[in-house]
Amino acid sequence: MTESRSDVDIIRSCQQGDQDAYTDLVNRYQERAFWVAYNLLGNAEEARDAAQEAFVRIYRAVDRFDFNMNFYTWLYRIVTNLCIDRLRKLKKNPAVALNGLEEVLKDDAGDNRPSFRLEEKELVTAVRDVLDLLPEKYKTILVLRDIEGHSCKEISSITGASHATVRWRLHTARKLFKESWEREQKKNAV
Amino acid sequence: MNCKKVLKLLPLYMSDDIDAVDLEGVQEHMNTCLGCFREYQDHLRARRSLKQLAFKPDLSPVMEGFADEVMLKIADKAQGPAAPLPRLTYRLAPRLLAAAALILALVSGGFYLFNDQAESPSHSEFAEVFIPPESSDTLEIGEFQPTFVVGGGGTMNPANDKERKYPDLEPLPRVPQHFPVARPVNVRVNNRDF
């Protein structure tokens, strides 16, 4: 059984011009990149584009890779920044439909996964709608911490903000989320 | 421990990033303070709501061909990893551009002044603003203000019969002495308004 190569080995191969090695890296991290982008953008197609763009940019800058950093930290940073840029553009031109993943993934008849039962779908939609109301920097923190499960230290590396700033933003983000959630619940109850 | 301190420590408490002494203090306080306990509950609820989005279904249909598309985009954009430019170039490039722009502006300005002085030292290109009509009739104030096209056959001229800056304009007749220039008329020279 062949051992999978480490990220560092693959990056060193890429620096020597081995493009095929990069495919392994893409396959390894594509879903993670997609999920971060999807949770930030709310649209499957946009998320796929952003994730692909991040991989392309990384390849073009692979000669400048800092081996003191983890590859996935670098990847998350680029994906996050690309998504924040797109969110800002979308705010100016809000023409993109949100919540595109449920249309893409079909719920099989014999599948027992609870993920797409009706009430859960509604809850997921409601949570995503409230998340979309938050400013980009707070939304990013919530996605990375409460959805993706990264520690504050990892988020600090990804975003470039200090540990204390990340904690403070996380606290503020949860407060804003809570307030927006209550407001939306009241609106829907009326 | 008071409420202010507990609320300040709450982010650390929720991130499990709190030291043992503060942890005990926060827990003790929340056992007795309903306000702070509710604040903590609200934050927990927000976090729990967001966890709904953490479930990840099988993404195979979405990710099909993802890696191949990435490699195609890379092949389209470049032959290989782009070599970074030397740092010196990054720092010098804006300064070199600014210097080049300045030199160009100086040379153009000098050329313009040189030509202007050689041909018409006292000429002002805006002297043509006050141009009377060709007719010897007097214009009343507020009356019709014609637009005259000068150049390529135009015949209007201010009281200055020196050679024009624009070589394609014909020399224009003198302004009749009796004409009271009450208001300027619009003049178009070479299809541009002055």
Number of helices of chain A: 9
Strand content of chain B: 5-15%
N to C succession of SSEs of chain B: HHHHHHEEE
How far apart are the termini of chain A? 61 Å
Please, what is the average pLDDT of chain A?
82
Question: Which geometry of chain A do the CA atoms define?
Answer: elongated
Q: What is the radius of gyration of chain B computed over CA atoms, rounded to a whole number of angstroms?
A: 40 Å
- Counting DSSP E segments of at least 2 residues, the number of strands of chain A comes to 0
The oligomerization state is heterodimer
Q: Give the class of chain B from helix and strand content and strand pairing.
A: mainly alpha
Low-confidence stretches of chain B: 120-133, 135-170, 181-190
**Percent helix range of chain B:** 40-55%
* Main pleated sheet of chain A: none
Spatial extent as radius of gyration of chain A = 18 Å
The tally of beta strands of chain B, per DSSP, is 3
Largest interface: A-B, 55 and 40 residues
Key features of this structure:
heterodimer, A: 190 residues, mainly alpha, 0% strand, elongated, B: 194 residues, three-stranded mixed sheet, 6 helices
Structural summary, described in words:
The complex is a heterodimer of chains A (190) and B (194). Chain A has 190 residues and is mainly alpha-helical. Chain A is 72% helix and 0% strand. Chain A has 9 helices and no strands. In chain A, helix 7 (136-147) packs across helix 9. The termini of chain A are far apart. Residues 107-113 of chain A have low confidence and may be disordered. By secondary structure, chain B is mainly α. Chain B has a 3-stranded mixed β-sheet, with no helix packed on it. In chain B, a hairpin with a 2-residue loop joins strand 2 (186-189) and strand 3 (192-193). Classes of the chains: A mainly alpha (190), B mainly alpha (194). Chains A and B meet through helix 2, helix 3, helix 6, helix 7 and helix 9 of A and helix 1, helix 3, helix 4 and helix 5 of B.
